[in-house]
Queue: 4 jobs
Job 1
Amino acid sequence: MASRLNPYISFAGDARQAMEFYKSVFGGELTLNTFGESGMAGSPVENQIMHSQLDSPSGYTIMASDTPPGMEHKPGTNVSVSLSGDDGEELRGYWEKLSAEGTVSVPFEKQMWGDEFGACTDKFGISWMVNVIQS
């Protein structure tokens, strides 16, 4: 799998509706994973979206989630750039450079879903998420 670069949008509880709308606009395959499916069953956000991905027939990819509990949803700053793929060496190199003079909000390490992941804001104020898919 080649590395992929795409927008990642954060919503305030309406990610499912937004992603279904984008599917009606762009077509394609939509996957939706809830917080409940990811270990937060029985919580107030159980049915909200932890991660979603729309892959369109034209090659567009949009990823999105509802803002997790404890994090602020601030319209205007709710879009990040996502880098993902299975080339760990390449993606770790991007992470090192992007986070070097920036601010790390999620350290780059193995996550509960099994991938290596980190989130940072680069020195220019752009939010990045880097995910190395584990096979």
Job 2
Amino acid sequence: MSTAAPVSLVTGGNRGIGRETARQLAGLGHTVLLSARRPEDAERAVAELAPGVPGTLLPRRLDVTDADDVRALARRVDEEFGRLDVLVNNAAVNYDTARRAVSVDLDEVRQTLETNLFGAWRTAQAFLPLLRRSSHPRVVNVSSESGSLELMSGGTPAYGVSKAALNALTRKLADELRAERILVNAVCPGWIATDMGGPGGDPVDQGAAAVVWAATLPDSGPTGGFFRKGEPLAW
């Protein structure tokens, strides 16, 4: 399959901000690979979203903690499209509000880092050859104010440290890829009323819109930044 439409991959796309990001990108005419650890979850989300968007939504299985799985999907995307235009590293776990850094089980922290940091890292590495074939490549790391060193406080130790590390990865990738015109940014969607965020937050479409903004930046747009609602956020 080949397409003139932008090809976008959204990890953790079956619910919450990932699902809405996939919907909004497809609403802009993108061909969106909506991925989830369980293929049936991806298929269900696509079945529910596809009738309402002009773009194409395709379900894909992807466990970002499994290196073989990530490489297999990269090979499939290469065979189907020959490139990737947008990578949205959205998959994340364990908003551990009940934990404290002084006492948290470090095995839990390692498991959180495996998805929230290393999952995004290995996915970026695996898809970088395909991004290099794009005319307008973009990488968006979905982060959180919990990862801001300036604003950081106690609590949510595994999640907060994982997002701070994801922000650091964003800066590293952006600097290394700047000369290749690959824009890499971190986005904090804000407090959003999702399964992870809980009730009381902003609507999910607002959080996803911030991600879509970074995914569709012009070539003159920023790289290596940390943003919320399109405005810089303190590192």
Job 3
Amino acid sequence: MIRVLVVDDEALIRTGFQRILAAADGIEVVGAVSGAEALRTVREQHPDVVLLDIRMPDVDGLTVLGDIRRLPDPPVVAMLTTFDMDEYVETALRSGAAGFLLKDTDPEALPPAVQSLARGGTVLSPKVTRTVVDGYLSAGPQERSSKALQRLTGREREVLVLIAEGLSNADIATRMHLSTGTVKDHVSAILTKLEVSGRVQAALFAQRAGLLTEGAG
């Protein structure tokens, strides 16, 4: 059972997400609270996944993210956002966010997103991905990005594409017929070579480099 906490300043959003997730098999919503109650609820309920509004009037969502990430054995945190909130994305990425979901995400897509997060995968709503790719990663020099990609082995590029598709280490291991330990080694090498600090940044790097388009072709 995946334990989920929803944190948002709008009661309508909290209630909607809670009802959608509570109706899904294998998911238990352990709380739906405002930002001021978030840290205390995480400590009390020990959720596996937290869906956290990126900006709230009572307390800044990025501050809450940092506080949660500093806890012992912190839960996975994905940020809830609207399309015009991309100025906060870079800070959230560097603070350890595992993904971004738009508040108007298709209800049918929400439970699978939570399940992917719980497995260690990344989740990026398509609109958010486009915004981040155009903004966050495009800030870096093209030449540096190209050289970083060239440092990857063929197998590491394959793993990077699967990371960008949101697969966890276990899912990648199954897909590529490798051990989970081997996949972890590949992921560590990828993060080092690309000079990024997490899976989401690596996924966005792959998006910007066009690796997913290459795979589809």
Job 4
Amino acid sequence: MPIPSDMSKPVRKTAKLHAYHQLLNWIIDGTLQPEEKLNDIELAQALGVSRTPIRESLQLLESQGFVTMQPGRATQVTPVQKDDINHLLPPLASLQALATELAAPHMTDEIIAELEATNQQFANALKAKNFTEALRIDEQFHQLIIDTANNPYISQIVEMLQAHVRRLFYSEKIILRESSIETHAKLIALYKAKQTEELASLMTDNWLYTLEEL
């Protein structure tokens, strides 16, 4: 089980939280391959923590569908199923659309300016064909809206769904379209004009285009 050795040891956030986020990132980017068997002793040594937070993290990852645990046998990374995109994107699109509407009354000039700056960074990354960076910035753009909506339940569910989508993007090498730059700009324009009627449908379309391409 290859594990990177050139990583920093945990800062004093909880060992469980550190282990969970690191394992999730490794599963998403393919460092831990689909169906790879996981050894909690090796993972604990690599992350500089005890086996307890590793086991707790793996249990959480199992509940979210990233690993399967068979007591007495093996813990494995779940396989990537391309068809899962059909199950992931519709609820994610609906929640993102709802958040887009909920954020409207709280959208300040400062947040709008941050959205504009983020969209410009997104455009730069796409034009440079740095698709990994573009995906990260695209998530940052949408997270600004989620945060502004200020609904913890939407935020938690979106975070989990988004992690699965991110894994599929890495695995299937899905490339974000440059038309997303224009869609982001339209969303910003609607916020500026306080025209909320089209926000939800525009955000929904922004997420569901991937289904048409696949």
